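Most newcomers find our protein records easier to grasp once they have seen one. To make this concrete, we reproduce a full record directly below:

===
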Amino acid sequence: MPAFGLISWRVIGMLVLAGCSAALAWQFQDWRYGRQLAEQAGLHAGALNQLTQAAATEQQAEQEKRLALEQQLSVSEQTHYRALSDAERDQGRLRDRLATADVRLSVLLDAHDAASTCAVPAASGAGGMDHGAPRARLDPAHAQRIIAITDAGDRGLIALAACQAYVREFQGSQRK
């Protein structure tokens, strides 16, 4: 039995030695894979950091574009408001002058028109541009209506110019 006891201890020793070497091999593999996973995680984190920085840079560029467009629109709006208020002031002055009879609106009559042969006096006034051509004065109420129509037309033209400027600025900012 002593040989059997010796063999069994050898077998047990070899099994223990094989188990330890297997455990060491597993531990080595675990360290190697752990290192590879750590490298991959580091590369992944670096790639994510680069993507985050690129997105932040893009967002900053878009914010700068938006701010520049807002500033351009503010300048355009101020210009539009100034033109509109100037037109309103001029129209108001003209309405006031018409109301006080400081100025009268008149129309030039066609000298070749057969209906104009009726006696309509030429508008009298110093320094007339038409040198005595036949003119007819408009009723002040009609003159006020004409001024209101031209005022609305001026407002429309100013608004149209502002819209066109906005579209040009917007298209210019989209091309950049």
